[in-house]
Structures
1.
Amino acid sequence: MRAQIDPATRIGLVSLSVGNLERSLSYYQQNIGLVLLGHAGDTATLGVGSTPLLRLREVRGARIVRRATGLYHFAVRVPSRLDLARVIWHFAQTETPLDGAADHLVSEALYLSDPDGHGIEIYHDRPRSAWYDPNGSFQMGTIPLDFKGIVRELEDDVQAWAGLPVGTDMGHIHLQVANITSGNTFYVDILGFEQMAALPSASFVGAGGYHHHIGMNTWAGAGVPAPPEGAARLLSYELILPTRPALQAVVERLRTAEFPLEEYGNGWAVRDPSHNLVLLHAESED
């Protein structure tokens, strides 16, 4: 029987390099609605409330490199449809450009890019009961977003924009990979995620029946290399296991599969087959 990752596994802090830190801080605070939690030298951490979601490290003059592995987008999840409506209204007021929007049946989502070309998704989940068709089959797809319906949530809303609400988290991360098969081997067969949906050029895997914690695609090209050091790129992302035993089970499977591991703080660092750096941590020692 294939091993399964703990169902309470989640995505944590996403770290990116940027070409101009002050420019990025302005964008993420004023346009996106994150708050600055810490700033030291060339590195800053942003989040919601006291929860860190994004770490930015300045690599002066870093450039956009499209045909490489790394980040497709990170996905910030707001608690409700009303919260997504407030985001839409804020974007309209600040003239923040969108790259796109979609109803994925499991969620409703907005897409945009930061000044360095890093992809961002802001979304809310539909109730899990809506993720399945009348026959009980999981359904995830892409249809046009009902902007008017979402904005109608604001009819009786008098709350002024105060940034992304408490309860916002990093819902998932979508990666550009060199090969879908090797990506599935790493994330499904070894780490223990379940494949929830698949296309010939993409795979979506989740823990505990979630629609996806990790997306993978080869839309930048099959076999593309890792980005160069001077690129604006994904530096790492955290995979948070709920307990130390749950973390250790994943670490043992990685060791058995002979993936190189390095100690990192109170956890472990490993690179997936496309050289994306994954930082494995436990939420508690129990």
2.
Amino acid sequence: MVINLGKENSILNQFIAELRDTEVQNHSMLFRKNMERVGEIFAYEISRRLAYETKEVITPLGSAEVSVLRTYPVLATILRAGLPFHQGFLNFYDKSENAFVSAYRKHHKDGSFEVQIEYVSKPDLEGRTLILIDPMLASGYSMTLACRELIGDMKPLHTHMVSILASVEGINYIKRNFSSSEVTVWVGAIDDELTAQAYIVPGLGDAGDLAFGKKL
């Protein structure tokens, strides 16, 4: 159910190292580009799990039989931090339909907060592969809420949840709420600690602020 690509040596770990590095983080364009690059790597790895069919392609000198995607997955992201990450997937799955979830943390005076969904835009997901993209899987609650809002009464063929970084607590939360037949979780690294404010430690900070600037 959980696939941690960061356990193997690849260029993915270089990009994640730069995303974590406070010196590199000062360059917001590079931060966004690294998120996009990581998205492309995940997109390729997930493509190995999708269904293919044989197609005859006419070339200038004849014809060739090639294996092509049977159907493109639906790409969904949680705004705003997920946008550069989402672009990496869209670079590969350029014919995919897309879905977007607008969610935010509503903070209370006692320091607690709750996640609320403002808006969902989505195509038909019935019988289709869904890739739900969010750079950070912290508590797991936002990802679960977004997934359920997206799916509603529909039954996707399978859902891939993808995050650059995850906490142990977030992974366990997803495991408690979804079966392996429903969901595969893809991550680039798993960190042990989660703060009371649901920030991953060591993590990388606020991905949305680092990509687009601080919000009020």
3.
Amino acid sequence: MGRVTERRKVIRIRDGAVSARPDTLVAEEPLEIRLNGKPLAITMRTPGDDFALAAGFLVSEGVLGAASDLLNIVYCAGATVDGSNTYNVVDVKTAPDVVLPDITLERNVYTTSSCGLCGKASLDAVRTTARWPIADTPPVRVAPELLASLPDRLRAAQRVFDRTGGLHAAALFGEDGELLDIREDVGRHNAVDKLVGRALQKGDLPLSRTVLLVSGRASFELAQKAVMAGIPVLAAVSAPSSLAVDLATETGLTLVGFLRGSSMNVYAGEERVI
């Protein structure tokens, strides 16, 4: 899809001088995710890698765990009243033996924002549905110096950010620091879903020897997605939330925040940071 950016007229004021000029903005459109024909969730995203986004979202929900769980993903033709295809609705078709979730309002609220459920219920839901318990995986060790080098490498790889200044990014690194994949999106949770979905499609789950770096803060939702994909280390350039720290502590996830320059805070799983 080629709708990552759009042009809009802007009035520019610089040192008292006023001019009109076009500006490049990041595109934001809704994506409806359907599961075997039934509406499941809607997210606001930057178009592109929509199939990976949908697959990654379903990994974080415990529905998909391997490429064999997925039959196909298609854009829904006739998604509008006039029958046109907006490329904003995808339908994920699963293999016959995949156990499907109950599609209810309560579940949809939980899957999109964790609202409506107490923190303990949210923690329990992730802990009990994770396919690859992080505490049981072979130990990964990362040096502080390696972690400190990752934000600059993430920023250098953000191609669309350079044109818009309005995108979040998520990147997967190997434990040796190799950049494995990077995705950009208006929502950092979507960027993570795109990474995880691409890994599912390639048969690379669980991501048990990787480090996930996100621009901005580390919310409960991002920690959840890391745990569900089997990622042992989550690092963020900004602060984590309290519930993200609680989830990391309970699941064995290493959580690093305020990763800036040579400074960082390790909130959980410090045994992986050499």
4.
Amino acid sequence: MIDRLAAIAVHTFKEAVRDRILVMFLVFALVLMASSTVLSWLTVGSEIKIVTDLGLAALSIFGALMAVFIGITLVHKEVEKKTIYAVLAKPVRRWEFLVGKYLGLMLTLAVVTGLMAVFYLGMVWWKGGSAPTHLVPAIVLTYLEMSIITAVAIVFSSVATPMLAAVFTVALYVVGHMSSGLAGFLDYVPSPLARLVVNGLYYGLPHLEVFNVRSQVVYELPVSAGYMLDACAYAGSYTAGMLTISMLAMPG
């Protein structure tokens, strides 16, 4: 089982790193991070805060875009080329194929995130910032956010064309950063049916703001170990749920 998962993951990684859209997004992310140093010169006494805030924003946004535009082709490309049927005809279970593909993509995103993080930390250090230990939680949480976006992209890629999958995943990414506000909206919903729908949306939609700690990092406030563990548990459980749905929806 482990050998099959590793083989699929490595093949997916090799295929993903050759994707030109990945290189394009990486270049844009590095350019945006570098531009934060220019903007920091326009401020007085807040250079490090500007570099930190814009750097983490670039890491989060472009990381999510990479997860979307690589993840949406993950299953669809295999179905379109009919290679999925050849793979599943071998002693490879559906879940092994899907999890292997997912792990390969997450390995790709780990490498890309590492490159962006090293570049970003280098800029902070160059601008005279403090030791990067307080920045590490934000980078780890950004990667966890990517893990959820990737799983969501795989679900949509299993049931829709790449274009529709991209639209749906980006929309869910945007809504996921606002979904936490649905809890307060319940106080203004009188209808029991409407409350049931709102509750379903609240618990069904991803709460991506959980992974946004830029404000704490900018002001060098600590992110507790308990918070990190809760975020890891949430990302793991939500990802597992999405992959299960994708496995059920996957043709073959």
